[in-house]
Design a protein that fits this description.
The protein is α+β, with helices and mostly antiparallel strands and about 100 residues long. The chain is about 25% helix and about 25% strand. The protein has two helices and three strands, in the order E-H-H-E-E.
Length: about 100
């Protein structure tokens, strides 16, 4: 079973797309660091040490509707959406 979450990143209205991209990349780094810090005894129970299944960033707008069941945001240079999928660590929604 996996868990799918998303991060909405909003910056001030006048920022360039490159600043939004940089911020989204930093958010991805934080997510990776948090996932890598998961207790090893929990991850070994699953047979692999990789809890992060996938991570995708949409810079300047939200992901397409078929990707996630929320309404996509309009194209804007100050907005990014990061979609993160991780494997569940134990029973339903534990840890």
């Amino acid at each position: 079973m996996s868990i799918l979450v998303y991060l909405d990143i909003w910056l001030p209205n006048d920022v360039p797309l490159s600043a939004t991209n940089d911020t989204a990349m930093r958010a991805e780094q934080v997510v990776r660091k948090v996932v890598e810090g998961a207790p090893k005894e929990v991850t070994k129970e699953t047979g692999t040490e990789h809890l992060l299944t996938s991570m995708t960033s949409f810079i300047g707008g939200g992901g397409p509707r078929f990707w996630f069941s929320i309404s996509p945001k309009a194209t804007q240079t100050n907005y990014a959406q990061v979609i993160v999928q991780v494997r569940e660590q134990g029973g339903p929604l534990q840890n």
